[in-house]
Inverse folding.
């Protein structure tokens, strides 16, 4: 890891992974700012099926564990370090790219926990994509999911 970070320039697949992380963070934060400003009241996209609505989630995925927001924030920091370590150990550029997407999503939600609270990591995550009969989510959540699917596909492809 030291050679990757402190040595010469980053290898292209590391640059791609970190670039995807930055892209995921930027897209997430821009769309969350739009949600805060424009989606109260909700914007109906497909009546009865999809709307964009500003909500806040102090818990984990699907609003679970709302009473443990600060603990979840610290856990996400730990997971981010694990993801960085996994990037170094990854066997392919595709795996690194997937991990970069996951890292970007996790970081996007972590930014909310820092910026939208009154104490350390106690803030709420902005969610805004609302499908009927499905919990409201955001682009950071989607990034984590998409990165995980790519990782699973990569593992399946190896076997």
């Amino acid at each position: 890891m030291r050679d990757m970070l402190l040595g010469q320039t980053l290898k292209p697949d590391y640059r791609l992974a970190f670039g995807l992380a930055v892209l995921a963070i930027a897209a997430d934060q821009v769309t969350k700012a739009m949600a805060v400003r424009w989606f109260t009241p909700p914007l109906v996209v497909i009546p009865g099926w999809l709307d964009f609505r500003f909500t806040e989630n102090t818990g984990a995925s699907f609003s679970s564990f709302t009473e443990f927001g600060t603990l979840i924030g610290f856990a996400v920091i730990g997971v981010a370090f694990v993801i960085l370590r996994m990037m170094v150990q990854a066997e392919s550029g595709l795996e690194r790219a997937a991990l970069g997407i996951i890292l970007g999503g996790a970081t996007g939600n972590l930014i909310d926990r820092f910026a939208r609270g009154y104490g350390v990591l106690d803030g709420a995550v902005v969610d805004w994509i609302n499908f009927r009969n499905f919990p409201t989510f955001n682009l950071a959540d989607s990034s984590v999911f998409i990165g995980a699917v790519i990782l699973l596909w990569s593992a399946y492809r190896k076997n």
Q: What stands out?
A: The first strand starts at residue 43 and ends at 46. Strands lie at 43-46, 50-57, 125-131. The chain has one domain: 20-158.
